[in-house]
Amino acid sequence: MAGMAGPDLAERFAALRPRLTVLYMSGYTDDARVQESVLERGFAFLQKPFTAESLARSVREVLDSAG
Q1: CA-based nearest residue to 6, from 47, 51, 38
Q2: How many whole angstroms separate alpha carbon 33 and alpha carbon 45?
Q3: In the Cβ-directed half-sphere of 9, how many Cα atoms lie within 13 Å?
Q4: Can the peptide bond before residue 49 be classed as cis, meaning omega within 30 degrees of 0?
Q5: How far is Cα 35 from Cα 47, in angstroms, rounded to an integer?
Q6: CB-based burial label for 24 (10 Å; 0-12, 13-18, 19+)
Q7: Which residue among 7, 15, 19, 41 has the highest number of C-beta atoms inside a 10 angstrom radius?
Q8: Residue 25 and residue 48 in contact, taking contact as beta carbons nearer than 8 Å
């Protein structure tokens, strides 16, 4: 992803595939701008570190909201 931030990449994919569902994950705990940017674009966000249970719950929520 040289030269492109994760949210920008997700936005490009979403533009190519309008039905695409995005769950963005980030380990940048001290950068609220990353999370705000992702949420403003309408993507779900999961903060690292996370448990297997919270990952499964987030994936389920994203899939349920897509239908």
Answers
A1: 38
A2: 12
A3: 9
A4: yes
A5: 9
A6: buried
A7: 7
A8: yes
CB within 8 A of 13, min separation 6: which ones? 20, 22
Helix axes 6-16, 32-40, angle to 10 degrees: 10
Question: 23: which DSSP letter?
Answer: E
Q: Are the C-beta atoms of residues 14 and 45 closer than 8 Å to each other?
A: no
Total residues found in the chain within this entry: 67
Can you give the pLDDT of all 67 residues of the chain as single tens digits? 567 777 788 888 888 998 888 888 887 665 677 777 777 777 888 888 999 999 999 999 999 987 6
- pLDDT reported for residue 47: 86
Task: Kindly report the pTM of this predicted structure.
Answer: 0.70
